[in-house]
């Protein structure tokens, strides 16, 4: 499975070099999540999100490392990785989907629907959201947010801290893709 | 009368002991809650390695490399290919000779300014926590090690 993924990525990248005009990529995308409860607010930021957009088809693939989420408190980060999302078992979260009607978007500030499958903690779930799309000559910027149900991903929260962690988590994203170039 | 006094003192002692226990308990809980992150600057790196070696290890066997390096404090030496800023946080990208992969080091705020003083082509030592591998190796909470800067 792992090898297949690597081969897919390789094929993807090699084809990239041939059609380099079409693929836009960022290795330093930003995704954060936010949990609000009466007890406390928890926020974590990930500044190292990998995301690739195909300008022709509007296809989008996002990948991130769970361990790259940075929390304000070390203990939160530890619990998140060790007990809740079990990063040692499921180190990555991915999203594969499409920006709908992407080829028809042309204005500087438009909105579009993104639809796809979010995989995390060994579970898959279809998500969709309306996001802001900015297509500048050398850049494709996507930003927006969507809600995720903790229960959908089989993430178990111990009773002791059940009141500290929201059942629905808000995910923010800001991805600024540039044309893929081989350095 | 004496009996009641003695009883009062006894209850008082129990109450005092109880309160002390609660305070100590609270102290521990608060301490645990505020447990600090690993002090990158003053902790010794578990691995001191070149960018190329680290990239090779991940490309040969990602699982094995994950077990070896992830969550460990690593000091990497390499040539800078890119310096960037995302939402006020700087990142330094260290090079791979083959140019296919690289190491992206997300810097701690305290080294933001120092990172910006660097330029492409500089050789640096970066110390930080490794979090894994996507197309590149990812490191977070990184700081610059000042000695041996620009040494080829």
TrEMBL record, chain A:
Residues 54-176 form the Lipid/polyisoprenoid-binding YceI-like domain. InterPro entries: Lipid/polyisoprenoid-bd_YceI (IPR007372), TTHA0802/YceI-like_sf (IPR036761). SUPFAM superfamilies: YceI-like (SSF101874). Coiled coil: none annotated. It comes from the Bacteria. This is YceI-like domain-containing protein.
TrEMBL record, chain B:
Keywords: Membrane, Transmembrane, Transmembrane helix. The keyword Transmembrane applies. The chain crosses the membrane at residues 12-33. This is Putative nucleic acid binding protein. It comes from Lutibacter oceani. The lineage of its organism: Bacteria, Pseudomonadati, Bacteroidota, Flavobacteriia, Flavobacteriales.
């Amino acid at each position: 499975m792992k090898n297949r993924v690597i081969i897919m990525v390789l094929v993807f990248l090699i084809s990239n070099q041939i059609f380099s005009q079409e693929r836009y990529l960022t290795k330093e995308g930003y995704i954060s999540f936010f949990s609000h409860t009466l007890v406390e607010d928890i926020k974590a930021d990930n500044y190292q999100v990998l995301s690739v957009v195909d300008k022709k088809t509007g296809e989008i693939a996002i990948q991130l490392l769970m361990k790259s989420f940075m929390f304000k408190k070390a203990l939160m980060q530890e619990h998140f990785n060790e007990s809740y999302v079990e990063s040692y078992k499921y180190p990555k979260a991915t999203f594969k989907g499409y920006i709908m009607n992407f080829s028809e978007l042309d204005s500087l500030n438009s909105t579009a629907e993104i639809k796809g499958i979010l995989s995390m903690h060994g579970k898959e779930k279809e998500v969709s959201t309306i996001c802001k799309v900015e297509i500048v000559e050398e850049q494709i910027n996507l930003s927006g947010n969507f809600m995720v149900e903790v229960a959908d991903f089989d993430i178990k929260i111990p009773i002791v801290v059940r009141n500290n962690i929201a059942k629905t988590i808000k995910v923010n994203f800001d991805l600024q893709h540039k044309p893929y170039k081989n350095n | 009368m004496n009996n009641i006094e003695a009883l009062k003192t006894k209850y008082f002692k129990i109450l005092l002991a109880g309160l002390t226990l609660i305070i100590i308990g609270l102290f521990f809980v608060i301490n645990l809650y505020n447990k600090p992150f690993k002090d990158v600057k003053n902790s010794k790196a578990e691995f001191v390695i070149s960018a190329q070696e680290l990239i090779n290890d991940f490309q040969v066997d990602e699982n094995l490399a994950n077990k070896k390096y992830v969550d460990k404090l690593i000091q990497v030496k390499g040539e800078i290919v890119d310096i960037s800023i995302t939402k006020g946080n700087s990142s330094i990208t260290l090079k791979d000779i083959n140019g296919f992969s690289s190491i992206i080091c997300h810097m701690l705020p305290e080294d933001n300014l120092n990172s910006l003083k660097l330029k492409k082509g500089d050789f640096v030592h970066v110390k930080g926590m490794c979090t894994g591998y996507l197309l590149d190796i990812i490191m977070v909470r990184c700081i610059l090690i000042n000695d041996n800067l620009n040494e080829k």
